[in-house]
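Sample intake sheet
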Amino acid sequence: MKHYDAIIIGAGQAGVPLAKKLAEAGKKTVLIEKRWVGGTCINDGCTPTKTIIAAAHAAHQARKASLLGLEIDTVKIDLKKIMKRKDEIVDSFRSGAKKGIEATKGLDLIQGEATFSGPKELRIKTSDGAELLFSADLIFINTGARAKIPAIPGLTAANYLTSTTILDLKEIPEHLVVLGGNYIGLEFAQLFHRFGSKVTVLEKSSRIVGREDEDVSSTLTEILEEEGLKVLTKSTLEEVKGVQGKLSIQLKTADDTKNIKASHLLLAIGRTPNTDALNLDIPGIKIDQNGYIPVNEKLETNVKGIYALGDVNGGPAFTHIAYNDYTIVYRNLIEKEKLSTTDRQVPYCMFTDPQLARVGLSAAQAKEKGLDFLVAKIPMTQVARGIETGQTLGFMKAIVDRKSRKILGACLLAAEGGEIMAVLQMAMQGGITADAIRYGVFAHPTFSESLNNLFMNMKEK
């Protein structure tokens, strides 16, 4: 049994910086990772997907270049080259993170799978088959999540894709069916359509991106359908069959049943936490009905000294939230701060084209809370920068408290929506009012300049 001051399970976007900082603070620390350093973000999340999306965006821009007066005869998609570039970037990020760990004094990196063997003890089966026993007073769980696989007849034999396995495709799908009309599914749906695939999106609810306001969902649906994707809502996948190397997908819709012939099926219906192999019952760590580890506002589990960070705790599943989890835990434990997750902002961005970025309350959420608010909204067809660059799809929208004039939330379905959203997020952090932005001076011509016009259009909800 080897004793450490701190054990971190999982080298994700919370685990890696936390391990380094704890070691630098003088705590003997071990970081255990069963797969690759970097977690979902670097290996099969943000880094590879946004790299591939960049290629799809470039292809789309080339095809519509005639609108800007340019004639491009053909656009050839070299998937092998695209995937090679993606792999090189992922390898660079991953190796950089690993080198940073290995260069940190007082920090050990163990490749292997950890399970609890006692209240504050872990058994690690290493990648070379050895078994190690570690103990520590502080333990941090950062094991992340994986794609959720539904129980559908015939699915196992259908050679389905997940958000991980689709990154290793060697050929462009002839017809890709995407199960799930939310953030992960829609990014892949659009990018593969831009590579030349026929794409059908299946969503069981009445609309895609259901957590957003109705106008966001309907506008994005129109954009995707106009581009050529097919979006089927109120659709449930009932059975999958393999027929002569193709897939036969049986659907139940609001009106009848349908059968779709496809070459590939992507499952994008959510995530499952990686907690099943941890033996959490041994230390008595509680999990919820979905396997996530509930934590308090300090990110501590029900067992004192054991914390859960990132996707595994069931909070917002974003890289930047996992990183913020690390900063809260570290600053509280080492710098003796009194930080918490209560009321922290949760910005996010879906990298469809146009991007869907949001921070704070939606109009529906503000209404549910009984708040007295105004809605500011302008279409991108009224944004000068959008007109000049040929990017006029979508809109800008903000929710403003009527009395204080402070911004309660913002949604940008727009080109560079994530960057514009960050401007409004900073205003929210600083308590800057909508009126101050309306009369503020922004560089011309930029997308953010049109925030002047956005707040000229505040109306009743």
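Comment: The radius of gyration is 24 Å. The first helix runs from residue 15 to 24.
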